[in-house]
Task: inverse folding
């Protein structure tokens, strides 16, 4: 079950939701490094065996920081946090696409100003 954040719940409500999410991760075993690796080739970026893993594409194409981050967020859109029930797929996708747009807009503004994207 996925809880929605109630803006009227305030800080305590957000803290309670974080505790509940941590408890769900514990129940699913995703706090166990043997079961999930959030640092080295995480699945929400494609995974180690995927030739199109985000970091491999970013490095192969020499995309740089801002454009590379946009590709990273697009590649994981709707995936991160969904598996442990922290967010819905639609909410995860919306946030990731907004982050990608932020980095693309920064790259565009840098180019307009004559800087590296």
Result:
């Amino acid at each position: 079950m996925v809880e929605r954040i109630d803006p009227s719940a305030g800080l305590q409500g957000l803290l309670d939701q974080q505790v509940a999410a941590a408890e769900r991760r514990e129940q699913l075993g995703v706090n166990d490094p043997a079961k999930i690796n959030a640092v080295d080739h995480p699945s929400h970026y494609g995974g180690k065996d995927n030739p199109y893993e985000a970091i491999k594409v970013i490095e192969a194409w020499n995309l740089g920081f801002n454009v590379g981050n946009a590709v990273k967020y697009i590649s994981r859109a709707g995936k991160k946090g969904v598996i442990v029930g922290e967010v819905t797929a639609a909410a995860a996708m919306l946030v990731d696409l907004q982050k990608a747009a932020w980095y693309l807009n920064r790259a565009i503004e840098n180019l307009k100003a004559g800087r590296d994207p």
Helices lie at 10-28, 54-60, 64-76, 89-112. The chain has a mean pLDDT of 76. The chain has one domain: 7-112. Residues 89-112 form the longest helix (24 residues).
